[in-house]
Write a structure and sequence with these properties.
It is a single chain. This protein has about 400 residues and is of the alpha+beta class. Among the domains are: about 160 residues, f41 fragment of flagellin, N-terminal domain, CATH 1.20.1330; about 80 residues, no CATH class; about 35 residues. It has seven helices and 15 strands. The strands form five sheets. Strands 6-14-9-10-11 form a five-stranded antiparallel sheet. Strands 7, 8, 12 and 13 form a four-stranded antiparallel sheet that branches. α1 runs antiparallel to α7, α2 runs antiparallel to α3 and α5 runs antiparallel to α6. The protein is elongated.
Length: about 400
Amino acid sequence: MLRVSSNTSFTIGAQNINARQADMLTVQTQLSSGLRINAPSDDPVGASQVASLNSALGQLGQYQNNQSAAISVLNQGESTLQQFNDAMQSARQDLVAAGNGTYSDAERTSLATDLQGIMSRMIGLANTTDATGQYLFAGSKSGAAPFVQSGNQVGYRGDATPQSVEVAPGRLLQTRLPGDSVFAKIAGGNGTFATSATSTNTGSGIIEPGSVSDPSKLTGDNYTISFSGSGSALTYSIQNTTLNTTVATGNYGDPTTLQFDGMAIKVSGAPAAGDTFKVAPAGTQSIFTTMAQAIANLQTPASTPAASARFTTAREGQLAAIDQAMTHISLQQSTIGTQLNELDAYQSLNSQDTLDSKTQLSHVQDLDYAQAASQLAQKQMSYQAALQSYTMISKLSLFQYL
């Protein structure tokens, strides 16, 4: 025969009341928070899914922040490079104007002063900072101005380390370009080779930048074009000074287009016997060096035929170098445009992934209010029943009948 003491009855009754109260409070908490899972014990499997989805949303949020920051930096970089190209176009116009044969030394000096102002503006653009005060074109040394000017000489004190940010899983996108690759490592001359006049030339011969006539025949060697004789008997000789061989010889007529080893170079005017021109691989040169050379050229008197020829040859080379720089900067802008298009695609994908994750999260943890309200009513009824049962049990004592 099972005997149940009054103490056991009271204990069981109290436990039943506490359990029903806990159930009711759980539903009330859900209704208050709007969440089905407020503690891991509410749904261990669901809680694990919630933690995973929240982690994914946090990562997507970081990617979104990185994408927005990258877009801001790249847009500013693109705008800066466009302004830089505009400045180079202004410099080019001044150099074209300097070719006017009626200009005096004073007028060319005035153009040199204008070029100095343009050069200062270009340096300022190369030292542009973003909204956080970091320099756009300093590589990893973005805390200090990358370009330093001393007179017309400009030095680079940034580094060659590109700066990237993760904009998608496993995708690092370069946002800050090293200034030396943008403004310094620019192909000189016509992009393949460069021509120049020897400073000791006494004739009025002019050599143009030239062009590539047959890429397959290019050697990348150095050449010297020399002249001998005079008048109608003036001849030229082209020496490959790298191999120490004679490439071509012939009679000179004004003008003459020399074609050798895949190159076509026009020479005009009246070179004197002993005058020479140089042809060398283009190499690379800073746009600021080109500007400094153009300023120095404009400041040099060109009152004699020989000085005028040297000025013209140098000016033609500087125009070609500026054209190369403008093409180079435009390619950098094109690269930035491609990166911005890529970021637009990543932003769209990121937005869709975020929406999908939030939808999944809502499905797992959000509360069905109608169902929860019904459950609360049931839990309250159970709680009330437990209270009433306890009240009745507490009266079951022999003392009530004595």
